[in-house]
Each structure stands twice: as C-alpha cells, then as structure tokens.
Amino acid sequence: MKESTSEYAGNSCEICSGPVEERRVLARFRFGSDTIYIENVPAWVCKHCGEQYYDAPVYKRMEEIARERENIERVISFPLAEFDVKIA
C-alpha cells in the first residue's frame, strides 16, 4: 500500500478528525452471516480512535479471502460473553 495512492493518506479520520497512519492490522471482516479474521492487512488507522480504513484493492482481496473461507486452515477460538448476562 503506497501512501500516494490512498484516499486516506494525509486526510483525517471521518469519525473523530484525528490523523491516520498506515499500519498492518488484524482485520475483522463480516461476509454474509460469517465473520472471519484476517492477519497482516494493510490499513489506514486513526491515531486517536483506532477507526480503520482500507484501500479498495485491499477490501476486494478480503472479499476474495472470505469467499474461499472453507480453505482457511487455521481456526481460533475466544470467550464470548453476552452483555446483559451477569458474570459471577
């Protein structure tokens, strides 16, 4: 991802107007009713609020990965709590 080709390069965050910088992130990507996580995704990230923006080719690549999700070999698990349930 080259800074000169990004629509976010040099611009501010749409949420908080903070500055954005190029980073590699662990992206949560929703595709249909599924959610997958994709590592090492190039993104523009707000330094203040953490909002993430993706260039169009990056987003299209994440869609391709999601379409082929049955070929993903690595699976992670994590605790899932419900907001309205009391935790002992």
Tell me briefly what this model is.
By secondary structure, the chain is α+β, with helices and mostly antiparallel strands. The protein has one helix spanning 56-67; strands at residues 20-31, 34-46, 52-53. It has one domain: Roll (Ubiquitin-like (UB roll)), CATH 3.10.20.
On the 0-100 scale, what is the average pLDDT?
Answer: 88
Q: Just give the CATH class.
A: Alpha Beta
How would the global form be characterised? Answer: flat
Classify the helix fraction into a percent range: 10-25%
Which helices and strands, and how do they pair?
Elements: E1 20-31, E2 34-46, E3 52-53, H1 56-67
Antiparallel strand pairs: 1-2, 2-3
Q: Any overview of this molecule?
A:
By secondary structure, the chain is α+β, with helices and mostly antiparallel strands. It has one domain (3-70): Roll (Ubiquitin-like (UB roll)). Helix content is 14%, strand content 31%. It has one helix spanning 56-67, and strands spanning 20-31, 34-46, 52-53. It has a three-stranded antiparallel β-sheet, with helices on one face. A hairpin with a 2-residue loop joins strand 1 (20-31) and strand 2 (34-46). The longest helix is centred in the C-terminal third of the chain and has 12 residues, at 56-67. The termini are far apart. Mean pLDDT is 88; it is low at 1-6.
Descriptive labels:
88 residues, Ubiquitin-like (UB roll)
